[in-house]
Write a structure and sequence with these properties.
The chain is of the alpha/beta class. The protein has a single domain, classed as 3-Layer(aba) Sandwich (Rossmann fold). It has eight helices and seven strands, in the order E-H-E-H-E-H-E-H-E-H-E-H-H-H-E. Strands 3-2-1-4-5-6-7 form a seven-stranded parallel sheet, with helices on both faces. The radius of gyration is 17 Å and the shape is globular.
């Protein structure tokens, strides 16, 4: 197992990509903390095995107090933190003109500030250990644009560049930072975006048609890539943005 004896935090782990990553990490031998503002205590019970524990810690990643408590509780429970996956995120489908200031601030506080707060809190521990892995879940829409999701594109572009800056600053200390850039993945978050459009089915078909594989991604697809980045299989990767989008950006 590639993550034996590792301790991982996965934010936004109650469902979708985050849950799939937590599930895969457990199967690879890690102890996992499911951090989410939504109660994931039942998910933690489901994931736990005889040798690998999963626990739930209620966390609002946009709150510095919550993030510090998450780090403290994790170290108290497991003694260290080897892997941080910044997955928590929100999305809505609006142009800049239609986006209110409060909507903009909310999305940025979760998608970008949350990554900053979690990284800032965990890096000192990883510096003491002289090793660690941080994986930030960005998006292909942090690399290319898309109509009607301006704030989301801006936030994920920020995650991509923050990941590179973190890798440059902390790679020499043994901390590898990379980001994943998923394309459209069949999660509740994307379903909510479809539902908010004037023609959900047409929007779904449009997303599928833009991939060269002609389908939406699965959370398990992203979990497999996250496991690769968390493991020693990616030991020479730092500051990378790994695109997993079914060929969307290639076309």
């Amino acid at each position: 197992m590639r993550l034996s004896n590792k301790v991982a935090i996965v934010t936004g782990a109650s469902r979708g990509i985050g849950y799939a990553i937590a599930q895969r990490f457990i199967s690879e031998g890690a102890q996992v903390v499911l951090a989410d503002i939504v109660d994931a205590s039942e998910q933690a019970k489901t994931l736990s095995t005889a040798t690998c524990r999963a626990i739930y810690v209620k966390t609002d990643v946009s709150s510095d107090i919550d993030v510090k408590a998450l780090i403290q509780q994790t170290t108290s429970e497991f003694g260290c933190i080897d892997i941080l996956v910044n997955n928590a995120g929100v999305e809505f489908a609006k142009t800049v003109v239609d986006t209110t200031e409060s909507e903009w601030d909310y999305l940025m506080s979760v998608n970008l500030k949350g990554v900053f707060l979690c990284a800032r809190a965990v890096i000192p521990l990883m510096q003491q250990q002289k090793k660690g892995v941080i994986i930030n879940i960005a998006s292909e829409l942090g690399l290319v644009g898309e109509a009607g999701v301006a704030a989301y594109c801006a936030s994920k572009g920020g995650v991509v560049m923050l990941s590179k800056a973190l890798a440059i600053d902390h790679g020499p200390q043994g901390i590898r930072v990379n980001c994943l850039c998923p394309g459209p993945v069949a999660t509740q978050l994307l379903e909510d975006v479809f539902a908010s459009s004037s023609n959900p089915e047409e929007m779904r078909k449009s997303f599928e048609s833009k991939t060269v594989l002609k389908r939406l991604g699965r959370p398990e697809d992203i979990a497999a890539a996250a496991t690769f980045l968390a493991s020693d299989d990616s030991a020479f990767m730092a500051g990378a943005d790994l695109v997993i989008d079914g060929g969307w950006t290639a076309s």
